[in-house]
Design a protein that fits this description.
single chain; alpha+beta; Nuclear Transport Factor 2, Chain: A; 3 domains; 6-stranded antiparallel sheet; 13 helices; 18 strands; 29% strand
Length: 389
Amino acid sequence: MKRFFIGIMLTLSLLMMLSAHVSASEDDDRIKDAILGFLDASFKGDTDRILSLTCTAQRDFVRLRFPATRPSFVDIGAVNVDVNDIELNITQKTFTQAYITVAGDLQVSGGGQSAQPIPITDVLPFPFITTVLEDGQWLICNSADLSLRGVIEAGAMGDKELADSLLCEPLRGTIEQNPFYQLGVSLGANANFSQLTYQVIEWNNNSGFVKIISNVGDADQLRVVNAIRENGAWRICNTPETTVRMMLELAISDDFANASALVCEAQRDTVTADLRSLRQRIIGLVNLEAQTAQPAFYEAVAVLIFEAAGVERRDFRIQVNQVQYTLSDKTDTSATIAFGGSIIAQTIGLRQNIATNQVLPASAQVVLEDGAWHYCPQSATEEETSSDA
């Protein structure tokens, strides 16, 4: 029986880590029913039902991972898990998401033994679950965009406490200056928040960034922000380092609208021009002939990949995950970042490391502007000196 319990705990723990007009009371009941249904389906190994109760952002991930979360020595069909004694408490709720604490006992029976209580907190990795409203249905979700949409919707509700709780610990108390909270304020409580759509790009399981990809009406509105996991939950946590990394990631994917929004306003035009040339400058440093042992292979690759203007984007990848950022001279409103490490240029048969000093300055300034960090490579003093000259 103990092996059954272990298998069940592994199954649910891994899953949760992935993890119409009605009255408020009825809506709360639907949220709780979704959670209980998800828990029940998890213990029964009902993949189809699990997927039907999982948010769109995580459905494919759960579909791929679920078979691997069922240990071969566990026959889930031989175990009965009763979730009726689970206690759910909705602690926070916005227009499209809700935060629920989970307590109480599972009643687990099987293997010839009668029901035994197992605290749900011994099974779940964290004593809370997040749900999101999609197409009128409440679904289980733990995607990074939840923290961003929560800040925006809390702004529309005027709930500073909720919005502040969705920031990472170092940023707590700064919500009134947050541009996404202010976006919510400007949209107001009557906005259709289901039309705000998001894209999550994860650098790893604990960090990444979120883009607003639908039209919010204001061309100058910042639409990209860093998110990290903090105690298992995604939180907004933009820093000088992540701002610069986001800018580079966006520039090499030709998303110059979002990349330029991460540049300080005074230098936006100049820096955006540099960002537009970044990819070609990196490509210009690639030496296929030196990197390839066989000249015949070099010729074939050159014909297939190189065109008059450079390299086909579909065949050539540029990665900035090995760029290093060293922070110094940090104050509440500015900091200096020194660049190190390398940028990776890669295609079939080729992987070349390009030192950052070949395409980036040795160091640059980052400033706090309109509640968010912005890349501002030339300091105000340097700008004034340049203009005086």
